[in-house]
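Final report, results section. Input specification for complex C-07:
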Amino acid sequence: MWSSKRRDDEVPQRPATTPTASNPATEPLRREFNTMPTPTKSFDSDLSPVRNGSAALGKNVTIKGQIFAREDLTIDGEMEGTIECQDHRLTIGPNARVQATLKAREIIIQGSIQGNVEASDKIDIRREAKLVGDIKTSRIVIEDGAYFKGSIDISKAAPPPKVTPPPQSQPAIVTTAPASPPVIPLAVTAGPVK
Amino acid sequence: MKFGKAAAGDPSKPSGKDAPLGFQRHSSGFDQFCSALQTPEGGMSVLDMSGASQANIVFLTGFGHRVSSDDIIGAMQQSFADNFHENQQSASNAQRFLDQALAFPDDSFDGILVWDALQFLSPPLLNQVVAQFLRIMRPKGVMLAFFSSSEKTTALPVYTYRIADRKTLSLIPRAGEQRIQYYYNRFLEKLFEDASSLKFFLTRDHLREVLVRK
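Structure output:
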């Protein structure tokens, strides 16, 4: 039986009708209320964007235009235009067909690209990839079997400038001269010299 | 036929459980090719016709060079298909091949690695291809091409060339064999007559390595 005290202890947003543990009519409602909704699975598990903190365009998505991303991005559909993913990873999925200029920190290529590709850190061309275009990057990994036609410009990333720490302010060294001993006047008595 | 330390038995088969597929061979021609392109600051432009590979890209870019990759054997197979040699005689097939494989501007490259692809071509296409290579080479540029030196050999496995080091190449067999043309030295001198110099390196594995300088 529910007591008023117990009712007060319940979650504030309770339905108007007072539910009872034994009332089957309200049981489903309570369960539905208390249960977290099941997230709808709208992406392939490999591309699970929300959980991994990245965005993804599925294989049935076609985009013409420019994409600017401030997080990791996976494209598995068709794209025509430019893609910029500065300081993040761009993945071109196995089903992707891209006619675009790509720029990112790191680029992983599994699909088909026609266009120039620039990565400040690394480009990874997988076995099933097909890339026609010029590459500019610091590092490149290309698997056997990948098709690539174009030029490769390896630009070594400039080493970070050496930061010399500012000279630490040294505590002042104060030397003090020892205090001169107090002068004690001597008593002088004059008398005849013997 | 001896191919060096890693090889044993049939060169088209792997030599050991852990050995990479294919075999290795010493190449004086490639060593000379590297010397010709050696500059303190790098910055040369090299065309590698064996298809893009990690080994070749890392080696060539290690010198500071810019590398362009294409697969000329793949382009040949696409353009000429099953009737490989007969289809080369067709002007339209030949033009399609030239447009696909050699559509580069004039004076694009300081170095070109053709490897052994030219021995699978026959005139007049061979002459057209060589003319195109010389067109896209910069003045004083160099090109390295391999030709069989055995008159009796009529077909060879098709290989992909990977650079192991400056003096060593790894040959990875591709599917199938292909008929080759044997060319006398005199023919090759005439073929490259527009070049400023030719250097031949004869090898023990019945190959002539030809270093062509524009």
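The beta strands of chain B are 23-26, 45-48, 66-69, 109-115, 137-148, 155-165, 168-179, 197-202, 207-213. Helices of chain B lie at 28-36, 54-62, 72-80, 84-88, 91-101, 125-136, 185-191. This concludes the modelling results for the funded period.
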